[in-house]
Each structure stands twice: as structure tokens, then as C-alpha cells.
Amino acid sequence: MELSIQDQSFLDSFEHIKEYDIDEYNKNKLNLFMIRVNANEFDYNTLIYNLLDTVISFSVSRNVQTKYVNKPARLHKKAVDKFVEHCRNTGELGELLLYAFLECHLKAPKILSKLELKTSTSMYVNGADGVHYLELPNGNYQLIFGESKTIKGLSDAISSAFKSIYEFKNEINSKGNAKSGINYEKSLISDNIMKETFNKNDIDFITKLIYPSKNSDFRVDDAFGIFIGYEVEILKEDKKLPNDEFVDKLKTKIEEEVEENIEKIIKAIDENDLIGHSFYVYVLPFTNLDASRKKVMEGVT
Q1: Can you tell me the distance from the alpha carbon of 27 to that of 279, in angstroms, rounded to the nearest whole number?
Q2: Which segments within 9-61 are labelled E, that is strand?
Q3: How far apart are CA 284 and CA 225, in angstroms?
Q4: CA dihedral sign of residues 231, 237, 238, 243
Q5: pLDDT by residue (tens digit) across 87-108?
Q6: If pLDDT is split at 50, 70 and 90, which confidence band does 196 have?
Q7: N or C terminus: fewer CB in 10 A for the chain?
């Protein structure tokens, strides 16, 4: 099954600062990215440019893309209209960025996005921010459920993400009441899989991923992809630095902020009884988070 994002230029928007192994068995990864810098500012315009096509594959199924393959203007309008409607309900840029990182960096193909898992035109699933799968080197697979948080404080964003994953896995909300969760989401994938353009072999394969049988020749484990967007403070005095010095200082600052919070991630996995899962965490700092998020969202629509 192919990736839904064929053009990998999304990653050109960033510098990949570092990958961290956050457990002793190297099954949990944190990848720290930084938006490329131009004249001592994050280059949001390049990010917007590289997200324009990604919005299409995020918002509409492969089936719809095939239907409109010779009508690109109509396809773009359909995708943007759907994305705008979705943003009114969620307001989350993080979902789009997580989808792109999982596809372009982790090489984990999308099965269905959150837009395709809505239960009606007015109610969106309050579960995963999309579902992907990953083939492991040993021939087994992971079903990856997405969770994104864009919150000013890095520590707060981490806490919020793992709280949501705990509730999703245990199918409860913060008050302890039962709600839709991981099993319900799997049933939605099964019910909606025909919305994507999959051949019979792909459909059989995905069905085995969702509901493994005794005849399966591979194991499937539930895993989680997490996007964390937070706000980094850049001092006006620092912006006066020569460009190379500014970038080096900013990278050091971001690395220190993330490394200070790795122990918090380890603790959150343990305290939420999630130690059996694998986690793929993507961290991206923003300046003036609310304004920058709005700029990017408006730019891609």
C-alpha cells in the first residue's frame, strides 16, 4: 500500500534537529524539528507553500482524488472546503502536521484521516487524529493512532496529549464516563474503509491489521503518533545577532527545552499505564503560537 503523500517536499520546511530514544529498548522516539529560519524568523510562508498539496491528501480520500484526477481545480476546492469545515469543529493545525510527519518522516501510510472518521456532518470523532500503519523490520506491524496538541507550554502540551491517549485507550472521559475510544475507532475504520481506493488485497490486509486472526502471519500492536506544537520565546535582542549565530542559539535553546521534558514523557507513559505501546513523538516550536497557527491555517485554505 502506497503512502498518500507522494511528494516529500513537506520536510523541506524544517531542519531536523535531533532524534531521541526515550526508553531503554529504543521503541519510543522523539523527533525534534524546527521550521527553517529566514532573516532570524521562522519561515512560515515556506511551510504554507509545502502544505498546500498535503491538505488535499489529508482532507479527501484516495477514492475522491482518483475521481477528480483530471479536474485539479475542483479537487482543490473540495479538499479546502472540507478542511475549513473541519477546522471550525477542531481548530487544530496539529492534526495536519502530524499526518504529514507520519507519512513523510516515519513512512507510515494513512489508512483513514479524522475527516473520514466523522460520524455525521456535525459531529466529529473525539478520538484519534487519524490512523496509520507501520511495517516493522521484523515483519510485524503497528496500527498508529494520532494525537496532536498545540499548547503554549511544552510541559502542558505533553501532559494533555498523554491524558487524551489514556482516555482514548480506556474509552473514558476526564469524568470517568464511558465514551468512544480505540475499539469504536477500529469499527469505524472497518465501516469506512471503502471510502479509500484500495484493491481487494489491500482491504484484506487492512482488515487483518484491525482485527488480527489466528491465520495472520504477523503480529499487530497498537501504537501512538503524537504531535506537540508549543511556543518558544525569542528575545528581540537575539534577533539582532548575525544569522548563523541566531540559528545556533535558537537550536540550543530548543534542544534544552525539549531535553528538560523528556523525563516528563517517560513519567507520563508510566503513570498512564501505557508502557506496552510504542510512541512516535514529533515536537515543533512556534513563535507567537496563536498568531502563527492562524497564519498557517489561513494560508493553506
Answers
A1: 7
A2: 14-21, 29-35, 37-38, 41-42
A3: 14
A4: positive
A5: 765 557 899 999 999 999 999 9
A6: low
A7: C
